[in-house]
Structure formats: C-alpha cells, structure tokens
Amino acid sequence: MGKAIFNGSFDPFTLGHLGIVFNAYENYDAFIINIGNNSEKVPLFTVDERLKMIEETLREYGVFNRVELIANDGLTVDIALKEKAFVLIRGIHENSNDWQEEKTLADINELLGKVRGIDLKTDFIVKDSIISSSRVKKLCQLGEFIVAQSCVSSFVHQKLMEKFLQPYLRHSLVFEREDKRGVFYANIIEAYQNRAYHNLSHIGYMLNMLQIYQHYKTGKKDLTNLDSLIFAIFMHDYVYNALGVDNEEKSVEAFNKIEGAYFHSISNREKIVDLILATKHDKSARNEDEALIADLDLSILGTSSEALWRWYCHSIRKEYDSVPTEDYRSGRIAILEKFLQRTRIFQTEFFYDMQEKQARKNILSEIERLKTVPLL
User: Fold this and answer.
1) This prediction's pTM
2) pLDDT of residue 139
3) How far, in Å, are 13, 95, 226, 347 from residue 219 at the CA level?
C-alpha cells in the first residue's frame, strides 16, 4: 500500500479536502498532508494557522491519529522524495473540464520522479463536493458566512470569522487612540472563543441575516442606527455562561467598561444597551430595532438546512456538557416548548414570513428527538 501525500495550500482547509482524506487514507500504510504555498497568491492564513486548522478538523472528525501533517515548500516531487511517499493524492471532479490538465500534471510529476530515481504515481480521488478554499473565501468576502459555515469545520469557520468580521465594526466608532481599534477587536475574539455555539460563527450568522434583511426588506437604514445595531450584535454575548441567567446584564456591564477604556464616546449608548437586553427574549420588543436584533439572535431556529440544524442542536448540547443528560433533556424540552407557546417566535414581519413555519417544524423535530433518541 505504501505511503501517500496530499499536497496543497489548504487556505483554508475545507470539508472538500476532508472528503478526499476520507476517501483515500485507508488505502495506504501512511497518509501525509503537506501544506505548501502557492507563489501566485498571498495566503489568508499563516502556515501555523493552517496546520492548526487541519489538526482541529481531523480531530473533530475522528481521523487525526491516521494522518501526518507537515509543511514544506518546493516541488511536490521533491517533497515526495524527502518523505518517501511515492503516491500523490489529487482531488478531481467527475466530468471535470480540468481532467486533461490534471492528467498532464500527473505525467510531468512521473517524469520528474524518474529523474530522481523514483516511481511516482498519482491517485485521483473523485470529489463529491464543489467546495474549494477560494470559494469559501469569496463567500466570506461577500458576507455569506452561513453558506461558508457549511463548507468547513466549526474550528475553521471560527478562524474565518476572526479574519472577516472586523470590518463590520464601523469606522464611526471613535477610538481614544487608533491603535486601540485592533486591541478592542482582539478582546472581542477572546471573549467569543472556546464556545460551541455562542461564538463568532453566531455573530457571523446574525450579520449575514441582517444583510439579507436590509437587501430584501428595508433598503438602506440610517447609518448611525445601523452602527448601533451592529455594535450591539457584537456585544450581546460578550459575557456568556451557559448556566447563567444574567448574561445580557453582564454584557451590558462589560460594554460600560469597554466604552470608557477604548472610546471617546459612543453615540446612542442607551439604544445599544436596550438592544443588548432585547436578546434576553424575556419580553416583547418596544420598537423595530429591538424586534430585529431579537429575531436575528433566533434566526438559526428557522434554518431550512438540515445540516445547520443538526450542528446547532449538537453545539447547544456541547455548551451544556456539564449538565447531566436527563437534566439537559428536560430543561431543553422546556425551553423549546416555551418558543412553541408563543403566538409568534419572530417579531418582525420579514422573519415571521420567511422563517416562522420552518422554526416550528425544527423545534418540534428536536423535541421529538430529545424524547426518543438516547443522548450521549
């Protein structure tokens, strides 16, 4: 069976790459993933960041111990020679237009191998996905973070959000010193890390749905008002304890401290506080913006993607992993049933029309699963 090497820039590592690994690694005695750099492109992530993303993805999907990770630049044939890996793994789409190019590349690598005294073959793995690193980055550039989330592991999506969410913190925020802008965003990243659900992917989901709301329903909103809403989205889960009952109030307290530490002043400060508190979902919204941020916070409930719904349910359970199974089961069912008892889950007409029916369907399915399926 020998040793095989899967070479690429993996900027970032996607579920398409993972599919190739799954389809190939068991066919070889050893399987190597090598991170190289494409000299024609400036990478989004450093080599160390990409190594970590691949490691965490392989760990998340249970194949970390079956794959070796390395990082080498240079010709693939020289890396293969160094590692004594004489099979190159390449992913290709069935009926792809680039098949001839890939076949030519395989032939050239075989000739290069003969010059070095090795028999170098290429194992073509038919991709069952259209996912690519460039498409994932393009989706994020467009603010389409939800679709990007379905293309990568949870860990990779977090790292993508770290790269792409900062521009949403508008320049109308007047920092005490300009160098504090980066420090403030670093604090945002730190606050939202190490969480299964209430993390930067959740913030990205809300911002993506806000973009959809703006485009299809409201058109342009007042810029100051929009900035307040976006800032409240970033701050609403700044403090989060899965077992806490006052996360929103503590996030407001953190906001008050942040305001004094980083900014000259923040316009509409009282409005931002009200918006953060609206995500507590304990009373009806008093105005359109409070209804909107509450709906954005709950918008995952109305997803029509079965994969995203499964991810959401799994992630919520992980955040409550300290809670015994039966306690979690009964508590989660009670929370979900409260949503069903509402006259409306979504308060804005836009989200009610688009997601109310699907949200009730999703919630009913999760209640049934919690009642009937054994939980880990």
Assistant:
1) 0.92
2) 97
3) 35, 42, 12, 19
